[in-house]
């Protein structure tokens, strides 16, 4: 098998057609260079150079080998340079899976300091529901996930960013839109639209309502908050949604009211797979956000 040094020796001699000049360029002695060329020819099975006392010329086989040798050597140089650039965080991709509400409302604020420090890093964002964020991280399609604290965190590390409140959301024409909202008891027997049955947020809201002894009538389900907003706008029912979505919901012309109930808040943060060998790019992002949280 040819070594990179042997390949380099062949290229330098071929380009200069002079062993002495090639030896100087490689910073080796002329005998060492000659030995490298001899080993190269032994491995390939024939002479690459026609040597006389005055000239060094490529043989026909050497001329055929040169362009391929140049491509292979350049690929090696590019590989080294590109890998060094990744370790220096001058190249690379930061792949994040993020719940849509935060991707729209707050992700850029978290990303901005990282982008400013590493402007050549590419960012890939996968905006999906909570369950898909966890799945993407566990199956290493994304290295970092941003979501509400997962119910089963045994397989991930969780870095809290902040606690988010929940709001009661309704159409302007809903009866509750024009009266003060003071208690969950006002929601008893109301029509509701909600996340799909096994969604992380649906389970959380169901537990809160059950704890308060409240029965609601789920008339529609969806997997995205944007879809629920459209159902609420059509006055199909009320919804309890994260305050993260408030700006978007108000832009939709919906009414948002605070809910004061113990425990009706969720911690939003970042996850990474435990014991996963994440890239230096992802490590740098995680460390930067961690430092920001401690500051």
From TrEMBL:
InterPro entries: HTH-type_LysR_regulators, LysR_HTH_N, LysR_subst-bd, WH-like_DNA-bd_sf, WH_DNA-bd_sf. SUPFAM superfamilies: Periplasmic binding protein-like II (SSF53850), Winged helix' DNA-binding domain (SSF46785). GO terms for molecular function: DNA binding; DNA-binding transcription factor activity. Residues 2-59 form the HTH lysR-type domain. Keywords: DNA-binding, Transcription, Transcription regulation. Pfam families: HTH_1 (PF00126), LysR_substrate (PF03466). One of its GO terms (cellular component) is cytosol. It comes from the Bacteria. Signal peptide: none annotated. Belongs to the LysR transcriptional regulatory family. PANTHER family: HTH-TYPE TRANSCRIPTIONAL REGULATOR YBHD (PTHR30419), LYSR FAMILY TRANSCRIPTIONAL REGULATOR (PTHR30419:SF30). This is LysR family transcriptional regulator. It comes from Opacimonas viscosa.
């Amino acid at each position: 098998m040819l070594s990179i040094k042997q390949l380099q020796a062949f290229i330098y001699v071929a380009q200069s057609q002079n062993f002495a000049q090639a030896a100087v360029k490689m910073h080796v002695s002329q005998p060492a260079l000659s030995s490298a060329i001899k080993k190269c020819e032994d491995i390939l099975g024939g002479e690459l150079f026609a040597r006389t006392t005055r000239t060094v010329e490529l043989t026909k086989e050497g001329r055929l080998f040169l362009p391929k040798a140049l491509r292979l050597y350049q690929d090696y140089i590019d590989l080294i340079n590109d890998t060094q650039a990744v370790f220096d965080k001058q190249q690379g991709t930061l792949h994040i899976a993020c719940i849509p509400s935060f991707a729209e409302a707050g992700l850029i604020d978290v990303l901005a300091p990282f982008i400013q420090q590493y402007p050549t890093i590419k960012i890939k964002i996968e905006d999906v529901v909570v369950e898909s964020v966890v799945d993407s991280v566990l199956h290493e399609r994304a290295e970092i996930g941003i979501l509400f604290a997962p119910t089963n965190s045994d397989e991930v590390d969780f870095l809290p960013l902040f606690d988010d409140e929940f709001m009661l959301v309704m159409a302007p024409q809903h009866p509750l839109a024009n009266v003060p909202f003071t208690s969950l008891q006002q929601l008893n027997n109301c029509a509701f639209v909600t996340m799909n049955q096994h969604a992380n947020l649906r389970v959380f809201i169901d537990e809160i309502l059950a704890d308060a002894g409240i029965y609601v009538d789920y008339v529609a389900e969806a997997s995205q908050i944007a879809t629920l907003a459209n159902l609420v706008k059509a006055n199909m029912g009320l919804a309890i949604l994260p305050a993260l979505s408030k700006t978007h919901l108000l832009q939709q012309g919906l009414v948002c009211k605070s809910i004061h109930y113990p425990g009706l808040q969720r911690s939003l943060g970042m996850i990474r797979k435990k014991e996963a060998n994440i890239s230096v790019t992802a490590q740098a992002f995680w460390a930067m956000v961690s430092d920001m949280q401690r500051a």
